[in-house]
Amino acid sequence: MRRLAIALLAAAALLGAAGAAAAAVRIKDIATLGGMRDNQLVGYGLVVGLLGTGDTMRNAPFTEQAVQSMLDRMGVNVRNIPLRNRNVAAVIVTAQLPPLAGRGQPLDVTVSSLGDSTSLLGGTLIMTPLMGGDGQTHAVAQGAVSVSGSSAAGAAESYSQGVPTAGRIANGAIVEREAPGAFGPGGALVLELKNPDFKTAVRVADAINGFTRTRFHVHAAHEEDLRRVTLLCPPSVGAARFMAEIGDLTVEPDVPARVVIDERTGTVVIGEDVQISTVAVTHGSLTVRITESPQVSQPAPLSGGRTQVVPSTSISSTEPKGTLNILRGTTLKTLVNGLNQIGLKPSGIIAILQAIKSAGALQAELVAQ
């Protein structure tokens, strides 16, 4: 009997540890290294080779100007010649430049029509410089545009699937200038939390210090505020290896008590720490039904009267009985069970949560989208 009790206690301890481990996440998933961010690139270019689905030069004069400038650079003078071709489209090209991207690294780009082109299917993007926010050219894009949508039109009917005026080019750009920022030995490293919180920052610093005291016998982390944790790389290890090792450390992030509602889609998301003080709630709806039953008035024969339609309207209203329900949630499960006992649709739950917040009984932040 004693062995059975010990086994049950051990199983309970294992289940508790598994539950705690399931709630913990890696530091690399909740924080990023300061300065290591993506940079947005944008450029203006031309897509050629379209099958009569390009821009109309009369409606998109910028396309004609771009074609003339491109041909001038190639030694072809068409300044005084009106262009009427429909196989060229002006596009905006966008891309994301990852941190520490080196010269020659390929990037995926997105191509979007700027004029009145109906489809970019089958087109090829001509060499387009991509500039960053600093006005410098960081990459050059070129290649065949891949479009997932399609469209067709006739005299009396049209067909469209997806968005044929936008597409992508996989590995369509090549980095020509390295992204700003540096990573290497020397200086302090800064971890920036994706969801800023004081408690989470302290837990991250404690987890890193516990690891570095055991491994390197130094105190390497210090929380600055709710968003940043400063790191000092030990001299016996490189910065890249140090970040790789602490990135796999697990912590349990603190989640704020928050309720998010979206009345358009009827979505309700309730955080784990949301609590509701004891309140009495009732919710009912009034239903009004209007029925039109027109009747035909037929006069007697030879009476000189006319046959007419006489309107007849019937109005009835029903309102279900409202019962007060005691609602209190000290845990997420208790709160959900209390809301389910009332038996409401999502719109009713949203209305009740808003009313409870107005009454001061919802101990959480209510976010309406």
What does this structure look like?
By secondary structure, the chain is of the alpha+beta class. It has three domains: 122 residues, no CATH class; 68 residues, 2-Layer Sandwich (Alpha-Beta Plaits); 87 residues, no CATH class. It contains seven helices and 24 strands. A hairpin with a 4-residue loop joins strand 8 and strand 9. It is found in: Bacterial flagellum basal body.
Please tag this protein with its features:
single chain, 369 residues, alpha+beta, Alpha-Beta Plaits, 3 domains, six-stranded antiparallel β-barrel, four-stranded antiparallel β-sheet, 7 helices, 34% strand, flat, disordered N terminus, periplasm, Flag_FlgI, structural molecule activity, bacterial flagellum
Layout of secondary structure:
Layout: H1 2-23, E1 25-26, H2 27-30, E2 31-33, E3 39-48, H3 61-73, E4 88-97, E5 106-113, E6 124-131, E7 137-144, E8 150-153, E9 158-161, E10 166-175, E11 189-193, H4 198-215, E12 221-223, E13 228-231, H5 239-247, E14 250-251, E15 258-262, E16 267-270, E17 275-281, E18 287-292, E19 295-297, E20 308-310, E21 313-318, E22 325-329, H6 332-342, H7 346-358, E23 362-363, E24 365-368
Parallel strand pairs: 15-24
Antiparallel strand pairs: 1-14, 2-11, 3-4, 3-6, 4-5, 5-10, 6-7, 7-10, 8-9, 11-13, 12-13, 15-16, 17-22, 17-23, 18-21, 19-20
